[in-house]
Amino acid sequence: MLFKAFIVLSTAVSFGRAVTPWPFDLTTISAPDGSVSAKFVSFGATLTELWVKDKNGKARDVVLGYDDNSRLLTDPDHPVFNPIVGRYANRIKNGTFSIPITKLPQPDGPNVYHIPTNDHDGQVTLHGGIYGWDRRNWTLVSKSPSSVTYKHIDAGDEGFPGTVTAYATHTVSNGGILKSVVRATASQKTPIMLTQHVYWNLDAFQDGSNDILSHHLQVDASRVIDVDGNLIPTGDFINVDGTPFDFRKEQAIGARWNDTFNLCGSGCQGYDSSWVYDRSEVSRTGTSLWSDLSGIRVDISTNQPAVQVYSAFWLNTPRKAIHGGPTLSYGRWGAVAIEQQGYIDAINTPEWNVDQIYYPGKNFEWSTTYKFSVSK
Ligand SMILES: *[C@@H]1O[C@H](CO)[C@@H](O)[C@H](O)[C@H]1NC(C)=O
Ligand SMILES: *[C@@H]1O[C@H](CO)[C@@H](O)[C@H](O)[C@H]1NC(C)=O
Ligand SMILES: *[C@@H]1O[C@H](CO)[C@@H](O)[C@H](O)[C@H]1NC(C)=O
C-alpha cells in the first residue's frame, strides 16, 4: 500500500502537479567542517540519522531509527524514534485537564478537555495522544545545506483547544553542533509542552557493544519528579542524594543497576524519570553523555527546566542496517532516550505554580543544543 502510494506520488511530482509530498523523503544537512551531519523526514520533523566522529575520526550514526522510515507511521509498537513530540509531551493524568488548571478536574466541569488515552491501560495520555505531533505530516518550509525548517498546523489535534502553529528548525554548525528550536503560537488558551525524543547509543552498536549500561551520564539536577504507579506526578520531588538518581557527579548508567528494579514502572529495570535542572543559566550544560568505547561525548544545553531520561527497557525493534539490522534488533537498554522538556503534567499539578498555558501574545519556544566532542 505504502509502496504503491510512493510510486503514484513520484509520478505526480514529475508532472509538476501540486501534491502532498511523501512525508518520508530524507533531507540531509551537514556542518561546513564535516563534524556533524544529520538526516530528517517531515513526518514528525523527525531526526533519522545523526553522524558524528569517534575518537579515531570515523563517523558513526549515534541515534536509533528505521531504514524504512514509513515504519514511523505503520509500526504499532513505535518507540518514538527522535521526533518532535507535542502538543503536550510526556503524561497527562486520565487525559484530562481544565483551563484554568485545577487539581482534580471534574469530567463534566467547565473548560475541561479530554485527550484520547494511550498508556497505562487507558488511564494516561502519553506524548499528545494517539496521533500527536510525532505522527503528523509536517511541511518542509525551507532548507539550506546546514539547516531545515518544518511547519505543523495543529488545528485541534486529539481534542486540544484551539489551533497551534509550530515551526521546528534543525541546524548543524562547525565544532560538532546540532541545534533544534521549535517556536509555537496558539489561537486560544492551551497547554503546550514539547520535546525532542532522541534515542542515543554513542557506540552505534560497534565493537561488540549492545547496550548503554557503560555510557557515562551526568545530570545537573538534585531533584527528580516523584511519580505514582502510572508515572503521574504525586506533586512531590525526590532528593537525589544517596539514591540511584544521583548523576550530579558522572556515573555509568548501569553503576547502580541492581537498585533500579521497578524504578521505571512495575517490572521495569532502569530509569524513566524526570530530573529538574538546578542550573540557572540556560547556556550551561544540563546533561552530558559519553562512551569510553567510541570516545563520543554529547553535552546538552536547553531552555527547558527538566529532562526525562528513559533507559529503554521496553525496546524491541529491528535495527537499521548500519546498526546490524534487520537480523539484530534494538533490545532492552540498547539506547537511552534523553528528552528536554517541562515539568510532567504540571497542568494537573497546580501546587507547583508552573504555568504551561499559552495564548495569543504568549508564544512557546523550545530550544536545545547538542555539542559533540571526543574524549580520548
Ligand atoms: C477520566 O476521563 C473520562 C473521560 O475521558 C471520564 O469519563 C472519567 O470520569 C475520568 N475519570 C476520573 C477518575 O476522573
Ligand atoms: C501522512 O502521510 C501519509 C503518507 O502519505 C498518509 O498515509 C497519512 O494519512 C498522512 N497523515 C495525515 C494525518 O494526514
Ligand atoms: C545484581 O543482581 C544480580 C541478580 O539478582 C546478581 O547476580 C548480581 O551479583 C548483582 N550485582 C551486584 C553488583 O550486586
From TrEMBL:
<dbReference type="GO" id="GO:0004034">
    <property type="term" value="F:aldose 1-epimerase activity"/>
</dbReference>
<dbReference type="GO" id="GO:0030246">
    <property type="term" value="F:carbohydrate binding"/>
</dbReference>
<dbReference type="InterPro" id="IPR014718">
    <property type="entry name" value="GH-type_carb-bd"/>
</dbReference>
<keyword id="KW-0119">Carbohydrate metabolism</keyword>
<dbReference type="InterPro" id="IPR008183">
    <property type="entry name" value="Aldose_1/G6P_1-epimerase"/>
</dbReference>
<dbReference type="GO" id="GO:0033499">
    <property type="term" value="P:galactose catabolic process via UDP-galactose, Leloir pathway"/>
</dbReference>
<comment type="similarity">
    <text>Belongs to the aldose epimerase family.</text>
</comment>
<dbReference type="GO" id="GO:0006006">
    <property type="term" value="P:glucose metabolic process"/>
</dbReference>
<protein>
    <submittedName>
        <fullName>Galactose mutarotase-like protein</fullName>
    </submittedName>
</protein>
<keyword id="KW-0413">Isomerase</keyword>
<dbReference type="Pfam" id="PF01263">
    <property type="entry name" value="Aldose_epim"/>
</dbReference>
<dbReference type="InterPro" id="IPR011013">
    <property type="entry name" value="Gal_mutarotase_sf_dom"/>
</dbReference>
<keyword id="KW-0732">Signal</keyword>
<feature type="signal peptide">
    <location>
        <begin position="1"/>
        <end position="18"/>
    </location>
</feature>
<dbReference type="InterPro" id="IPR047215">
    <property type="entry name" value="Galactose_mutarotase-like"/>
</dbReference>
